Amino acid sequence: MASPELEYLRLMKLIRAFEERVDRLFVEGRIHGTTHLCIGQEAVPVGACAAIRPSDLASGSHRGHGLALAKGLRPDRLMAELLGRRDGYCQGKGGTQHVASFAHGFLGTNGITGGGIPIATGAALSAKLRGTGQVVLSFFGDGATNQGTFHESLNMAAIWRLPVIYVCENNLYAMSTPIREAVAIERLSARAAAYGMPGETLDGNDVLEVREAVARAVERARAGDGPTLLECLTYRHHGHSKSDQREYRTRAEEDCWLQLDPLLRSERRLMAQGELGAETLARLDGEVAAEIAAAVAFAEASPPLEAALATHGVYAE
Question: What is the pTM of this model?
Answer without folding.
Answer: 0.95
